[in-house]
């Protein structure tokens, strides 16, 4: 038996500590990992070698000193009990707090947390489709882990353009502060930390871009010397292995390093694979390196029982989100090509494209034509730019071949046909543009230019098309310069973010945002916009999904209206190619309502590869009917019918939103019933607002701790942070720190939603963060209040309360006990009340039952103060305390035995499975090397088998520490309650 149990309170160097972990030390003693409890060392962590300490005193609960509470209505005691109650959450698989975040809760949003919390360690890929709210789902899981003491240190890695958006979402909705370590943030951080200090150790919770990490060797060194409780990698497909790669990219190597630096790993991506088994296997290996033995040949059965992935499409959660996720309306606008456009099509088909100075009929020449045709399908202006670049390229050669001279001549003819289409001042000759203009001005479409809450997004792949549109829409719609803007990839990240924020502010004059596909991933454009126009059709189904997801997403208040523009021509070749693009649009709609994943039709899972495949269809001369048949066959081959065992493994894994039925799979919430898995504990206070108000009142009794006030009707508390709170709040992002240390917290989620909306529309950067903070248990100020009230009674003391609702002579002790694992994490937490009448035996009842019986609620018990009988009662209760603790100890030993038996069975099964998986990986390694030379084989086998053994040994140790309970429960005496009068008095 260990001399010190994880979870025990000890006194070392005259300060109180909570033992979190115990490891054997090389000097024959023990290494204690401790968290500070008493005021001087609170929020500090320390390591102690028992052999070097003069004395380590374990606080014996039987010797807890009972003291009277003189506060009105026993406020100090009730606050003390409530604060302990809030921070002692067992490591179960229920949702305790995340459902109360500032969000319109929909059941499916809880499913990732419920699935991850059932694992020994929470590692999961949240692969929901575009627009379903993966950031919020990750926030719910992070909140639950924080409540369990498993989320003190957090690192989020995302794309540069998403840093601020992610940071704001987690702070304003979950009160999770992430300090931004981008190029701007790093300069601020350097001024706040000592030289040569690891910024990842200085800030417990931070966010950084993947590009900053991969390109900075200094940060790699910092990563290797830091540890987190939670790591989140957003858009994780960017760190997956890619099909055809011979080695790992820098991003992939970085992700592999990060995966070893945290117990919890959360991956987010709507496109979690590139269609290859190896790509997806690389993400699975980040989550669990023991899951897959052969990254090129495996099935979902190899890892699905581990609960590592969750993926839903709109069709899967449609019945849950009718009010929050409205079905989109699509409009297909058709216009006939005019004579000039028909001439341009003919001229394009006449160009004899060359390669290496020669014109050779075949697929390569057709692909060159298709590339030019793609520009023409976008706009004459884009085609004109491409044509002039091609002419310049060929013309700059010292000596052009005959074939090149012919191509130049034909290109010049093509250029001449384009000029009147691209350069016409009124754009009257460009039929697709005229059809768009007609639609924008029609009463049927209903777009109101003067309505600031009715904005428009127009997508085009080509920047030259966007520039042309800005010029002509400005003239034809009489727009001012600040009413129409371009968003494209050649802009700096800060410029892109500024435009997105402007588009989301009601008071900004911006009405039309012209976007290239750089805006199609991740950005929120839906706040005052539900109309989106595809001026040119994407050649990728994934881009269709990403573009539409900017306005067709969770939180959209209006029915999304998607507009597609089609040009109809009499030219048979061009007509066929345009018809192929129409088929893509139809498949996107089909996927939206039925299949879920549109990329199943092209089966290459990469936007660029999809566009190449479509161009290949055209270059090969496939008819629209042949293309549609090819797409349908690809999708059908991936659709797994119920009861079948065949079909593409990706669709077996992702083809349905229903949980995978498997006896070995962990039980998970079925769609729609996630709310049944909420386990919100009963509170001694009416609300968080009531708790905070009572705490501030109590803490300011007899002395002024801080200046504060309330607005009861609005459920707002304002306070000026005292020095110790100011120091704590330095861990927050600079944007949410108040310059005057004055903070306002609101417990009303509707009012908080309004504050978030108001901030989003603010013009000044510092005002785009809500000035109102969410008042709930996870806010740093609420955590500070809890720490403050816990110190009221001092070390190893518990308050004595009187309740007239008890029987005369009844004695009751409120006891809390926890059973930790070897990592010091509480696996089982029980609150019991040991009570007896007179000199009888103590019996246990649940805390909630006792609270109801004794009236142990805020304001529920009058405090009669110091009475003549109270001193005698204190002595009597003090004498009875050891027996009550022993009854609780015996009860918890029984609980520990039963609980430990369950865990032992689970541990045995897990270890047996690890043994099986390790054998498979060694077997696979043998197969991989069997064709190698014997000398090479021996060396490589030794090296790689050692790596496999190391991975599995590390995982075994982790599982054993996690699923092995300590033999002795830790017990704390929280309070004693008696009747005001002795029996018979």
From TrEMBL:
Superkingdom of origin: Bacteria
Helicase C-terminal domain mapped to chain residues: 448-599
Keyword Ion transport: no
Keywords: ATP-binding, Helicase, Hydrolase, Nucleotide-binding
Residue intervals of the Helicase ATP-binding domain: 115-290
PROSITE patterns: HELICASE_ATP_BIND_1, HELICASE_CTER
Protein's recorded name: Helicase
KW NAD (keyword) present: no
PANTHER family according to UniProt: DNA ANNEALING HELICASE AND ENDONUCLEASE ZRANB3 FAMILY MEMBER, SWI_SNF-RELATED MATRIX-ASSOCIATED ACTIN-DEPENDENT REGULATOR OF CHROMATIN SUBFAMILY A-LIKE PROTEIN 1
GO molecular function: ATP binding; DNA binding; helicase activity; hydrolase activity
Pfam families assigned: Helicase_C, ResIII
